[in-house]
Amino acid sequence: MSIPPTVREALTGWGPGSSAPPLPLQAAQAYTRRLARSHYENFPVATWLLPQRLRQHFYNVYAFCRWADDLGDETGGGSETLRLLAWWREELALCGRGEPRHPVFVALQPTLQQFRIPLQPFEDLLSAFEQDQRVKEYETFEQLRDYCRRSADPVGRIVLHLCEAVSERNAAWSDAICTGLQLANFWQDVARDYDLGRVYLPREDRERFGYDPRALEARATNAAFLELMRFEVDRARAFLCNGLPLANVLRGRVGLEIECFAHGGLAILREIERIGYRVWERRPVLTKRQLLGLLVRAIGRRLVRGRG
After folding, report:
1. What's the alpha-carbon Rg for the chain, to the nearest Å?
2. Long-range CB contacts (< 8 A, 24+ apart) of 213-221?
3. pTM, to two decimals
4. Paired residues of 199 in beta bridges
5. Which DSSP state fits 3?
6. Cβ-contact 157, 177 below 8 angstroms
7. How far apart are CA 140 and CA 137, in angstroms?
8. Which letter does DSSP use for residue 167 in this model?
9. CB-CB neighbours of 192 under 10 Å
10. 235: part of which helix (H) or strand (E)?
11. 137 by DSSP, 3-state: which?
């Protein structure tokens, strides 16, 4: 398996103990821009949907997330991964004190200052990555929801700051969309996550529907599993639908992108239903044609509402 460039840099260049001087701001921004454009599937980075004035700021935030994600998932796990995540947390703290060293934080600091973004959502994301090293299975949905509050919801709250649209109402809608997307991803990737030793289907739900540990270990697609997945898909859909009003209150391209992401999550859930909830046997994905259809329909809805 190839090592992500971020991990190579952490181990050989800009990692713990590096004595390299901080890059100038323009060079640091070019670095985050290259990183975002080369690997952008997990975050709403700057595409043509985003206003030009926000693109570099999204690049900067994305670069933080990309580094944290790679340090959490691509460094072998255990104590070494926790050590590198602790180093990344220290770099974040230095940025908060106005002393950024790493290129990501040199680029990110002006974004934090301009949009008055607190460090908390970034710290929450790191706590979720650290939890991934310690917790491989969840007993209750509330425990899983708490994980989503730190692994998914902070991204939406950062976006609200960038859009200068922070309010309690908008944050609640954003949290619903982000958690719904995270849950949709979990149910899409039941098999992949199990291969990594992670089980996001809460034990209380598995017991409620009679899906016992032996069936889980055997990856059995039985009647209990199908009912369990039906329940989880419906719950994820409720979160996404509860958050959809956010797309109506955010004007322009950002609102359009949020609408596309939310409806993309709903489309994944419909695809899980279409394959009969048999996610052990097949990973449901959206085709390029389906994604284009989502965009066209989202544009149509906004034109009808007059919020283009």
Report:
1. 20
2. 219/191, 219/194, 219/280, 220/280, 221/277, 221/278, 221/280, 221/281
3. 0.87
4. 137
5. P
6. no
7. 9
8. -
9. 13
10. helix 223-243
11. strand
Distance CA 75, CA 58 (A): 25
Cβ-in-10-Å burial (0-12, 13-18, 19+) of 195 comes to exposed
Are the C-beta atoms of 175 and 156 separated by less than 8 Å?
yes
User: Which pair of structure tokens corresponds to residue 63?
Assistant: 């670069």
What gap in Å lies between CA 63 and CA 293, rounded to an integer? 29
Helix axes 5-12 and 52-73, enclosed angle (nearest 10): 70
Q: Using the structure block, give the residue that is written with the tokens 């340090």.
A: 71
What is the rounded distance in angstroms from the CA atom of residue 177 to the CA atom of residue 236? 9
Report the C-alpha gap between 69 and 104 in whole angstroms.
14
Q: Quick one: CA torsion of 126, 127, 133, 139, rounded to 10 degrees?
A: -140
pLDDT in single tens digits along all 308 residues of the chain: 455 666 666 655 667 777 778 899 999 999 999 988 886 554 443 455 677 888 999 999 999 999 999 998 888 888 999 999 999 999 999 999 999 999 999 999 999 999 999 999 999 999 999 999 999 999 999 999 999 999 999 999 999 999 899 999 999 999 999 999 999 999 999 999 999 899 999 999 999 999 999 999 999 999 999 999 999 999 999 999 999 999 888 876 777 788 888 988 999 999 999 999 999 999 998 766 665 565 556 555 544 455 44
32/202 Cα distance (integer angstroms): 36
Q: In the numeric block, which tokens belong to residue 185?
A: 């991803």
